[in-house]
Amino acid sequence: MAATQRIAAVAVVAAACAASLAGCTTGSDSSEEGAPGPQQGAGVPRSPVRLIGDGSTAFTGAQPHLPRPERLKPGAKPPQFVVFSWDGAGEDSQHLFSHFRRVARENNATMTYFLSGVYLLPEDKKDLYRPPQHSPGRSDIGFNDREGIADTVKQLRLAWLEGNEIGTHFNGHFCGNGGVGEWSVEEWKEEIAQAKKFVKSWKTNAGMEDASPLPFDYDKELIGARTPCLEGQKNFMKAARELGFRYDTSGVNSQVWPGKKEGLWDLSMQLVPFPGHTYEQLTMDYNFMVNQSGTTTQGDPDKYEFWGDQMRDGLLQGFQRAYNGNRAPLIIGNHFESWNGGVYMRAVEEVIEQVCTKPEVRCVSFRQLADWLDAQDPKTLAKLRTLKVGQAPKHGWASFLSVRPAPAPKGVPGAPADRQ
Prior knowledge:
- The protein is of the alpha/beta class.
- The chain has a single domain (2-33, 52-58, 80-382), classed as Glycoside hydrolase/deacetylase (TIM Barrel), CATH 3.20.20.
- 33% of the residues lie in helices and 12% in strands.
- The chain is built from 13 helices and 14 strands.
- It has helices spanning 2-16, 96-106, 146-161, 185-200, 202-206, 218-221, 233-242, 285-293, 304-323, 343-355, 366-375, 378-384, 397-400; strands at 50-52, 57-59, 80-87, 112-115, 165-168, 224-225, 247-248, 252-253, 260-261, 264-266, 269-273, 280-282, 330-335, 361-364.
- α4 (185-200) packs across α7 and α9 runs parallel beside α10 (343-355).
């Protein structure tokens, strides 16, 4: 099964990415039915289903369970946002996609799932993929089989209906020499177009014409991404801006409030404490692994528990630093992988359980965070960006954000009513 092959292939890709700042990925399976998502938005769409193209996707109305972004009131303390995101999201024999959907529901969280387009392309149709600077049918993370495609589509469908975001991790995941870091703006546009195409034509490519569609228009759903191994960001952002994307999360930053770069919200992953070390660590499972067991994805079993605790505690220390300090959103990236016995999955789950139910904490998708940032007064965000890592306002939030902001634009809660 291609779904199983992806797991083996990732070890090879991880070795190739050892010197990079971020890692690589696979997919997961579930027979469970969808459950209600966080109760903070509209209900299930009631609009008639309008099939798109071959019926692989469909417009079903507004996405359910999305909170309405609200502008901060003068003197109010910002909520503590936490974003959990998954690179190359797919459902394979590990069942991690379905597992973390359940974990999210149980902890009032929504997340972002970055789908690799080749996970919806069967192995026998791989030549349909024409990667920039590579021969047709080439992919460093393989392709899928029809069972894996059906399982992945099911999880994508349920995830979206629960209020989660479906982003993109592109296709072939090429890193290093000949990889995405060498792609031009036009080559990035070509890669993005193919990622969209594989999502919008999975039924035809997999021979599943009678299957149910994905319940969203992917051209409108797709507003952000994370590049493979965090490479090629400069040209990707230029392409993304021209294509109407709203954010990028391919960079590395400290725990400070985000601003815009190339017209996109720069929602980079961040550096957090690395317990036992004097340097800080990127908020991604792959980077913890590389700094613990190197390029070996299954290191010394005697260290598994310690390594998992080390990642969990580092993320929690980063959370507390923001929660009790400047309230900068915490951005976390992961892969559906069982590296080092699955300790990073355990660590992430424990962090979700400990932080997402705390007062004033919102575990959201990148889309929801971008929506909230767009709703704020630019002067308020500029003031927030003056706070350093872990720095709380000296005289409290009421004083720090006491200046009355400019009126909110129409359509944002808090905006003045139209005068007749």
